[in-house]
Specification:
By secondary structure, this protein is an alpha/beta fold. It contains five helices and five strands.
Length: 138
Amino acid sequence: MLIIWLDASLQAMAKGGPEHRNAQGIMRDYYKSMGKIAVIEGFLGKHIDVLVYDLTTRTMTAVEYQTSKANALRNIFHDCRVCDEVVIVSSSQRVLDGIRADAKKVFSSAEFEKLSFRLLKEFVPQKLEEKTAASMPE
């Protein structure tokens, strides 16, 4: 299996608009803070928003950020075949719920067990989240 680890930490190399690139950076930093190798736009047969490798468990995780349901099932289909775990992330609970419902209908139970669905705010360090919330107008 050919894995290409690019040093894609520069936001300019990330795909998508500003929200997508920002989310990729947040997710990468989260996994790196846990001592894992995390690369934006890691390539494993296709580009994966954040490709994570855990040296301890020797497991590969695909992390995909979704602003809508578009392309989600296609990403999951590929990622389930090349990674040990697939994490679908969104800023919207509604988007996550829709993707989860669609995935449950089309994927086998073994594939579905590889999936987890998380809100982006779960990846933001608590202090940063508090600072961001405090600066938001009411």
